[in-house]
Amino acid sequence: MGQCGITSSKTVLVFLNLIFWAAAGILCYIGAYVFITYDDYDHFFEDVYTLIPASIIIAVGTLLFIIGLIGCCATIRESSCGLTAFAVILLLVFVTEVVVVVLGYIYRARVEDQVNHSIQKVYDEYNGTNTDAPSRAIDYVQRQLHCCGIHNYSDWRNTRWFKESRNNSVPVSCCKPNISNCTGTMSRPGDLYPEGCEALVVKKLKEIMMYVIWAALTFAAIQMLGMLCACVVLCRRGHDPAYELLVTGATYA
Q1: Among 17, 40, 43, 90, which is least packed by CB within 10 angstroms?
Q2: pLDDT for 55-78, tens place per residue?
Q3: Of 216, 217, 225, which is closest to residue 15 (Cα–Cα)?
Q4: Can you give 197-244 as a three-state secondary structure string?
Q5: Distances from the Cα of 102 to the Cαs of 24, 54, 66, 97, 224, in angstroms?
Q6: What parts of the sequence cross the membrane (predicted)?
């Protein structure tokens, strides 16, 4: 019965190591996705510390490749030192992912204040040229999120670009894609996106942070199971005489 329990634990442990390799790739992908998306929205969110959780999960993903290798070798060779190191490293990674979850919730709560503080400044800097970074950022966001202005398209009246252009128009990035020959004129509001960008940018950034939080929570639970299986194998290896005989016989064979 003891041998069956050990064998089951070892089988689960080997399976979990394979999951760790898959998890490593997923975590690195999520971290990279956060960095790429942040680059598209960085003008609306000036707090670079928001990238700390994403940086951590990339580091954790890289570490999981090593953890999976250590776990597989230790399980196959039935090494007490290897399994102990495996369990300790998993514990450290588990604590790290708990930190990621906490930081994720902290920075997620700051998103709205950060966007509210910076979005007006970005719109004021708009000049309508592709060489200008704030202009490219606004045009990109308005096309991607299907929005116009901060709260609605009428906010463009308060911008320097609108006052200098004097044509009663908003940027063509405010135009709905199904409208042909749209020039952005305010005399045809039906051609323009009715919703403002501020709320949609906040929603997008919060969604991205939730991806990080859920990824950390999911893989923290998997690592908890890995620690449990490693501890079961270690404990029974030390206290089960039948297992000791099995290991000894296998070694001499």
Answers
A1: 40
A2: 888 888 888 777 777 767 766 666
A3: 225
A4: HHHHHHHHHHHHHHHHHHHHHHHHHHHHHHHHHHHHHHHHHHHCHHHH
A5: 20, 13, 25, 9, 18
A6: 12-36, 48-71, 83-107, 208-235
DSSP 159: S
C-alpha distance from residue 105 to each of 85, 123, 180 (Å): 31, 28, 43
> Bridge partners of 185?
169
Window from 74-83, 122-131, 216-225, 243-252 with minimum mean pLDDT? 243-252
Calpha distance 87→227 (Å, rounded): 5
How confident is the model at residue 200, as a pLDDT?
92
* Tokens, residue 65: 């490749």
- The phi, psi pair for 64, rounded to 5°, reads -65, -30
- Rounded Cα distance, 167 and 182, in Å: 14
